[in-house]
Write a sequence for this structure.
């Protein structure tokens, strides 16, 4: 699509050092409004650090980061009001039910919400009265994403949202993320899954050792590689094993 | 856009945290079950109470004389039923009995200077106090009977005794219950707070809160508020059961209850501060109990929770007198039993020392608390 979209996140020359260790070595990128933007790279590449700096959870060493025009140094509270955050492996009060947890977050964001509608959005309406600790891994991830939407944010940050999920849960989560984008929200995700970046993201930044080594749409990146004469070693079939699995077992949410 | 209300956010944390506490078995056990169990146990022990002297009577001892009869009807003397002389001797040497008594009837043969009865009393070095009590009782009996026998003999002095009844009878429960309230605040404050904040931090619940507009201090305040409310409910239950079942003395009724709750709050705030220090210093969850015990065990044992600190030797007294729980227990007892107000100098001093402790504890807590 050639339509030029407004920029909602602007990162310039971002540097983060932990003592002597340079986690982020001066990255720059922009995120357009209403796109799904991915930070793709192996563990330790600096994706989560960059994400946490944008989420105002970590201080940067130098550089500029503007979220919807607000500075992460000076306007933290204003930023927190317009973003939703899903942390990797975060917990909640384990003995509280999902409804009670949603109550907690609606208070934390000072908003009134329709709790059952929110749970239905992520397919957890049947678990409304279950305690958080009784949920499976996939259900906990879905609930996490649910909490990111409570304040109807402009931007949602997801840190490796499908890690540890089985194929059905991953696919369904991707659909959910696309729905969020289609509702007008911008999504920034980090991932180390290539297929996730390829399937889900509108644009991808490939991160390695604190640097961005490529930034484009997945299709462009692939086209550019093929244009250099690259050939895949193995013959590419028209389907793969994951397609076989999903074809056999169905695409619905599964209660693991 | 509506202005963000930190207070409302704080209250939603309090509500969630309160629910979490009530569903945590260890919170209920330490705050409520343990203190109540101790109260019940000590409350029933207290009903016994009193000094007893265990006395064995040697076989062949004369039991028809008036002295023996007077001893039998004395409530302090406890005649132990033992079978043989050998067993009696063994008991005395092992410290299981306080004295062996042998009353012999003498063959007087008209000699007025030889007493009709000789009372042989054998005690041990373990029973010196009780032996002296028994001697005094026996001498008292003898002199009364002498006075009755010899009515015209002049005496140096006569003893007149009167006994008053106290306004309020000081029962064991009056000592135990305030100590148990202090114990409940101590264990909930230190252990409860330490575990909660350590877990909130390590499971990244705290981090998720940081991504919302609530300020960090309000998160802590919200958590503390919920624990305060929970403990106050527990304290009220403890006081209620103490009063209804064991006759705990509440001199000024509801005012006394209110005073005790205020003191509980002051104590709890100090102990929560200690919990913050532990949660910040602990490197992993298994080091929390030993660290917390550094704060709780000395106070548990030495602050007059189960028995007065005067029971401890002199060299231990200074340590007892440093601990905050000592002053909390003291203030609670004065308020409950003597009806002292907070302006009473002794209670006032207790409260000031508690405030001083609070300042010290929170100074350290602020330096050691970790947010992530």
């Amino acid at each position: 699509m050639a339509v030029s979209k407004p920029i909602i996140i602007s990162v310039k020359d971002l540097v983060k050092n932990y003592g002597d260790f340079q986690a982020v070595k001066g990255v720059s990128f922009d995120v357009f409004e209403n796109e799904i933007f991915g930070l793709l790279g192996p563990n330790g590449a600096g994706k989560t650090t960059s994400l946490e700096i944008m989420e105002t959870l970590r201080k940067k060493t130098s550089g500029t980061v503007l979220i919807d025009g607000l500075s992460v140094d000076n306007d933290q509270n204003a930023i927190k009001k317009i973003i939703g955050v899903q942390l990797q492996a975060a917990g909640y009060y384990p003995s509280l039910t999902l409804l009670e947890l949603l109550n907690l977050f609606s208070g934390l964001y000072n908003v009134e919400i329709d709790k059952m509608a929110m749970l239905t959005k992520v397919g957890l309406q049947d678990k409304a009265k279950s305690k958080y600790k009784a949920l499976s891994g996939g259900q906990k991830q879905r609930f996490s994403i649910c909490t990111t939407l409570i304040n109807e944010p402009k931007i949602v940050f997801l840190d490796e949202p499908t890690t540890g999920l089985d194929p059905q849960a991953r696919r369904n989560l991707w659909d959910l993320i696309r729905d969020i984008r289609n509702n007008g929200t911008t999504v920034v995700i980090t991932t180390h899954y290539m297929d996730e970046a390829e399937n889900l993201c509108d644009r991808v930044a490939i991160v390695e050792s604190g640097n961005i080594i490529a930034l484009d749409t997945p299709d462009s990146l692939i086209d550019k590689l093929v244009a250099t004469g690259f050939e895949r070693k193995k013959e590419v079939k028209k389907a793969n094993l994951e397609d076989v699995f999903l074809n056999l077992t169905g695409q619905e949410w599964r209660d693991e | 856009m509506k202005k963000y209300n930190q207070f409302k956010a704080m209250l939603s944390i309090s509500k969630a945290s309160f629910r979490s506490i009530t569903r945590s078995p260890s919170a209920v056990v330490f705050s409520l079950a343990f203190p109540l169990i101790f109260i019940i146990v000590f409350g029933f022990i207290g009903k016994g109470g009193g000094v007893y002297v265990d006395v064995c009577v040697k076989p062949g001892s004369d039991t028809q004389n008036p002295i023996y009869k007077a001893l039998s009807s004395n409530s302090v003397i406890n005649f132990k039923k033992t079978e043989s002389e050998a067993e009696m001797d063994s008991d005395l040497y092992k410290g299981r009995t306080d004295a062996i008594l042998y009353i012999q009837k003498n063959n007087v043969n008209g000699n007025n200077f030889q007493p009709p009865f000789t009372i042989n009393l054998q005690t041990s070095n373990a029973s010196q106090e009780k032996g002296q009590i028994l001697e005094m009782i026996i001498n008292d009996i003898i002199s009364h009977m002498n006075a009755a026998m010899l009515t015209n003999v002049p005496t140096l002095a006569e003893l007149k005794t009167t006994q008053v009844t106290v306004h309020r009878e000081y029962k064991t429960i009056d000592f135990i219950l305030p100590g148990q309230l202090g114990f409940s605040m101590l264990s909930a404050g230190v252990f409860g707070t330490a575990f909660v904040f350590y877990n909130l931090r390590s499971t990244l619940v705290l981090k998720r809160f940081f991504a919302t507009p609530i300020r960090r201090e309000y998160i802590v305040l919200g958590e503390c508020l919920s624990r305060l409310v929970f403990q106050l409910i527990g304290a009220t239950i403890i006081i209620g059961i103490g009063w209804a079942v064991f006759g705990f003395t509440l001199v000024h009724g509801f005012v006394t209850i209110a005073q005790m709750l205020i003191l509980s709050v002051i104590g709890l705030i100090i102990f929560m501060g200690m919990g913050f220090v532990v949660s910040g210093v602990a490197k992993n969850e298994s080091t929390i109990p030993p660290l917390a015990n550094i704060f709780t065990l000395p106070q548990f044992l030495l602050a007059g929770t189960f028995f007065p600190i005067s029971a401890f030797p002199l060299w231990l007294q200074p340590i007892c007198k440093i601990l905050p729980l000592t002053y909390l227990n003291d203030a609670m007892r004065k308020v409950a039993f003597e009806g002292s107000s907070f302006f009473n100098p002794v209670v006032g001093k207790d409260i000031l020392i508690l405030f001083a402790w609070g300042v010290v504890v929170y100074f350290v807590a602020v330096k050691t608390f970790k947010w992530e």
Notes: Residues 33-58+78-249 of chain A form a domain with the Rossmann fold fold (CATH 3.40.50.300).
